[in-house]
Design a protein that fits this description.
This protein is an alpha+beta fold. It has a single domain, classed as Arc Repressor Mutant, subunit A (Orthogonal Bundle). Helices cover 50% and strands 13% of the residues. The protein has six helices and three strands. It has a three-stranded antiparallel beta sheet. Helix 3 packs across helix 5. The protein is elongated, with a radius of gyration of 16 Å.
């Protein structure tokens, strides 16, 4: 009987981790979580995440976000794609538009992971 390896997404890796002050994170988990943190380290993506989360109904279309930036729609779409691929945004296509919603579990898990940071 063969043993199969469980593959976790970045969000799932964060969910199963202890807060960073409780125990050290192993290298494999850090490799899976780093893309999520890297995604929100960009100021445009951090603002986009905030705008989507604060948008009426907790959901926003690219067309709703264009006016907040001095960027082209394709550039905004690229940043949203990065956030989606990192597991921070869910998306659904309706007609020609893509609507984004914050993946709240991923943000909650990140908060838990970083929540014990000393002051």
């Amino acid at each position: 009987m063969s043993k199969s390896e469980l593959t976790l997404t970045a969000a799932e890796s964060v969910a199963c981790c202890s807060p960073v002050l409780k125990q050290p994170m192993d290298a494999q988990v850090a490799e899976r979580i780093a893309p999520m943190l890297k995604a929100i380290a960009d100021p445009v993506r951090l603002r986009l995440l905030s705008l989507v989360a604060a948008h009426e109904g907790g959901e926003a279309c690219v067309c709703d976000l264009n006016d907040a930036f001095d960027l082209s729609q394709p550039t905004i779409s690229h940043h949203l794609k990065v956030l989606h691929e990192a597991g921070l945004l869910d998306r659904s296509k309706r007609g020609v538009w893509v609507y984004y919603r914050v993946h709240t579990e991923a943000l909650t898990d990140l908060g838990t992971l970083l929540g014990g940071v000393a002051r």
